[in-house]
C-alpha cells in the first residue's frame, strides 16, 4: 500500500523532465515554403505594374479580340479572357454614328442615342438569358462579351454607310448600303455563332441561334434605314 501511495504522489509526467532532445537526433519533415509557388504568384501579380503597361496590355487584348471577330473561327479567345471594354466602345461608337446630324439637339439626339444603347445591351442580355435557360455552358459575361465584340462588322458597315451617304441618297447609294449591311450582318451572325454554338446542347442550337439572328437583324435595319438629318 505504501508503494502505491508513493507512485500516486509522483507527478504524472515526472519522467519527461530527464529527457532532453539531442542535437544528433535528426528531425524529419520540412517546414520551409517552396519558392516555386511564390515566384509564380509574383509573375501573375500586377499590383506593382505601371499604369502605362496595364493600359497597353488591355489594349492589345482588345485588339486581339477584334482580330478574332474579323476572322471568325472556332476559338476560345473571347471566352477565355472576356471583358466588356470592347463591347462598350463599339456600342457607344455605333450609337454616336446613328445619332446623325442632330447631335446638338437634345430633343432629337438624346433619345436616339439612349434608344440604340438600350437596344444593344438589353438585346444582348435577353440572348444571354435565353442561352443559359437552354442549358448553355458559358457564363453570363462571356456571352455578353462575344455578342458585344461581334457588333464590330456592323459598326464598320455603319461607317461605310455614313461615307456613302455623303454623295446623297440615290438608288445607287442605297444598293451599295444594302450590300454592305447584308454582308456585315452575315459576318456578325457567323462570328457570334462560331463562338457560342458549341456551348449549347446539340438539339437546341437552333433555338439559341435564332435570337442572335434577330438581334443583329434589328441593328442592321437601324443602320440601313439611317438617313442623316438636314
Automatic annotation (TrEMBL):
<feature type="transmembrane region" description="Helical">
    <location>
        <begin position="113"/>
        <end position="134"/>
    </location>
</feature>
<keyword id="KW-1133">Transmembrane helix</keyword>
<protein>
    <recommendedName>
        <fullName>Protein YIPF</fullName>
    </recommendedName>
</protein>
<feature type="transmembrane region" description="Helical">
    <location>
        <begin position="208"/>
        <end position="227"/>
    </location>
</feature>
<dbReference type="GO" id="GO:0000139">
    <property type="term" value="C:Golgi membrane"/>
</dbReference>
<feature type="transmembrane region" description="Helical">
    <location>
        <begin position="146"/>
        <end position="165"/>
    </location>
</feature>
<dbReference type="GO" id="GO:0006888">
    <property type="term" value="P:endoplasmic reticulum to Golgi vesicle-mediated transport"/>
</dbReference>
<feature type="transmembrane region" description="Helical">
    <location>
        <begin position="171"/>
        <end position="196"/>
    </location>
</feature>
<feature type="transmembrane region" description="Helical">
    <location>
        <begin position="82"/>
        <end position="101"/>
    </location>
</feature>
<dbReference type="Pfam" id="PF04893">
    <property type="entry name" value="Yip1"/>
</dbReference>
<comment type="similarity">
    <text>Belongs to the YIP1 family.</text>
</comment>
<keyword id="KW-0812">Transmembrane</keyword>
<dbReference type="InterPro" id="IPR006977">
    <property type="entry name" value="Yip1_dom"/>
</dbReference>
<dbReference type="GO" id="GO:0005802">
    <property type="term" value="C:trans-Golgi network"/>
</dbReference>
<dbReference type="InterPro" id="IPR045231">
    <property type="entry name" value="Yip1/4-like"/>
</dbReference>
<keyword id="KW-0472">Membrane</keyword>
<feature type="domain" description="Yip1">
    <location>
        <begin position="71"/>
        <end position="222"/>
    </location>
</feature>
